[in-house]
Specification:
The chain has helices at 26-30, 38-54, 70-75, 82-92, 94-99, 136-139, 142-152, 217-226, 241-244, 272-283, 300-306, 333-342, 358-361, 378-383, 392-405, 418-434, and strands at residues 3-10, 58-62, 112-115, 125-129, 159-161, 179-182, 191-196, 234-238, 255-258, 261-265, 289-293, 312-315, 321-326, 349-355, 371-377. By secondary structure, the chain is α/β, with parallel strands linked by helices. The structure holds N~2~-(3-carboxypropanoyl)-L-arginine. This is N-succinylarginine dihydrolase.
Length: 445
């Protein structure tokens, strides 16, 4: 049996816009009210996904969510026709309308936490959608995320789908953005690293003072229980609150791992030495590469601006590893120099490939935010909805679909236009047919 890691990228939705919704996410705040280009955003994402498929990687796509979210607007008391609701919300509660229009489900690293079957007691691949309670616009994602995951991984013999955690800040959960798995080979039991920003039930524990910590220890522990992970195969690590206060709102902005490589900034964690020792102990005897980037080479500010750590580290079919980086890393002198150096360090990382995902980057989402990693085997892959898997035909079809339905300019003021809603629903209805998802959206029920 073959084992590998698949990446499921979020297809950027038709309402991709810059609304400044994410306090603590520097790019989101800096680009608030800028005009977006949803068509370019979707195509940039598709291009990256196709390039990985062309490198021999298993690559899937996850459908976007229905936005504007009329269901939520009705739930909070707006009534009338769809057009009346949009009109009233724009006048009476513009901030709430903006929260109901974000295409933020594109960052599928926040869709769920995933534990491969090699790690779980029942031998199934486990998914728990993230509740994303810290941000209003993201807290309305988990139910549909669960529907989309169930429609994509739709086989109960292989896949276990859990409900998202209780919707309370004690269980703040941002999914795979704060989760990394190290392993010798994808088919071996790995060590799952859960990184959190605060402890809900221990107010004396370190936490940031300026920006929110979106992930709690309690949420991470709940996921480990749900996924039937062994204590011997899990490590819980506190993020350094000082870096959260400098814009590191998820751990995947400061660290990334793959197989036997952990690539992280020296300021990423608390108690770094102790935690690395625990990882080493749980990982066992074989070779493990800790690539620690010192502040003297890359300042936190440069890491946050360039998204050096929001890169994907992938294992190519040759066994060598490649870094998939945003072009923003080439544009930052210190970071570019570091990436030129990293391939010479004698670790498995041998190449760096750059992709322009600037439309997403302007909202604080790099290459790694755009993908959900699912380590799996070929039997499990055969049980996946095959219409979600990237290949020449799907790439051509999705590009044509984007050309047909997406605008090339969208401002926050356009979000109240009922025409945007009609365009978005028409596009998504067609998409569910292309990807054979069934009726995953509220407007289809
Ligand atoms: N690091 C990972 N894995 N994901 C990045 C998520 C970016 C997203 N940005 C936004 O939601 C901005 C939306 C706006 O402002 O319009 C967020 O902050 O949750």
């Amino acid at each position: 049996m073959k084992h590998f890691e698949a990446n499921f990228d979020g297809l950027v939705g038709p309402t991709h816009n810059y609304a400044g919704l994410s306090f603590g996410n520097v790019a989101s705040l800096n680009n608030a009210a800028a005009t977006s280009n949803p068509r370019a955003a979707a195509k940039q994402g598709l291009k990256k996904a196709k390039a990985l498929a062309d490198m021999g990687m298993v690559q899937g796509m996850l459908a976007p969510q229905e936005r504007p979210d009329l269901h939520t607007l009705r739930r909070i008391g707006f009534s009338g026709t769809d057009a009346e609701i949009l009109n009233k919300a724009a006048k009476e509660a513009p901030a709430l309308l903006r929260a109901c229009c974000s295409a933020s489900s594109m960052w599928t690293a926040n869709a769920a936490t995933v534990s491969p079957s090699a790690d779980t007691h029942d031998g199934k691949l486990h998914f728990t959608p993230a509740n994303l309670v810290d941000k209003l616009h993201r807290s309305i994602e988990p139910e549909t995320t669960g529907n989309i995951l169930a429609a994509t991984f739709n086989n109960s013999r292989h896949f276990a789908h859990h409900q998202h955690l209780p919707e309370h800040s004690s269980f703040g959960d941002e999914g795979a953005a704060n989760h990394t798995r190290l392993c010798k080979n994808y088919g071996n039991a790995g060590v799952e690293l859960f990184v959190y920003g605060q402890e809900a039930t221990n107010p004396a524990a370190p936490k940031p003072s300026k920006y929110p910590a979106r992930q709690t220890l309690e949420a991470s522990q709940a996921i480990a229980r749900l996924h039937q992970l062994d204590d011997e195969n899990t490590v819980f690590i506190s993020q350094n609150p000082d870096v959260i206060d400098q814009g590191v709102f998820h751990n995947d902005v400061i660290a990334v791992g793959n197989q036997n490589v952990l690539f992280y900034h020296e300021q990423a964690f608390l108690n770094t030495k102790r935690k690395l020792d625990e990882i080493k102990h749980k990982f066992g005897d074989s070779e493990l590469h800790f690539i620690e980037v010192p502040t003297s080479k890359v300042a936190i500010q440069d890491a946050v601006k360039s998204y050096l750590f929001n890169t994907q580290i992938i294992t190519l079919p040759s066994g060598e590893m490649a870094i998939i980086a945003p072009t923003n890393c080439q544009e930052n002198e210190a970071v570019h120099a570091y990436l030129n150096e990293v391939v010479t360090l004698g670790s498995p990382i041998k190449q760096v490939n750059y992709f322009d995902v600037k439309q997403s980057m302007q909202n604080g989402g790099g290459p790694a935010c755009l993908r959900l990693r699912v380590a799996m085997n070929d039997m499990e892959l055969a049980a996946v909805n095959q219409h979600t898997l990237m290949n020449d035909a799907l790439f051509t079809r999705l590009n044509a679909w984007v050309d047909k339905h997406y605008r090339d300019r969208l401002s926050v003021d356009d979000l109240a236009d009922p025409q945007v809603l009609i365009e978005s629903r028409t596009a998504l209805d067609e998409l569910t047919q292309i990807m054979k998802l069934g009726s995953v959206y509220q407007f289809q029920k």
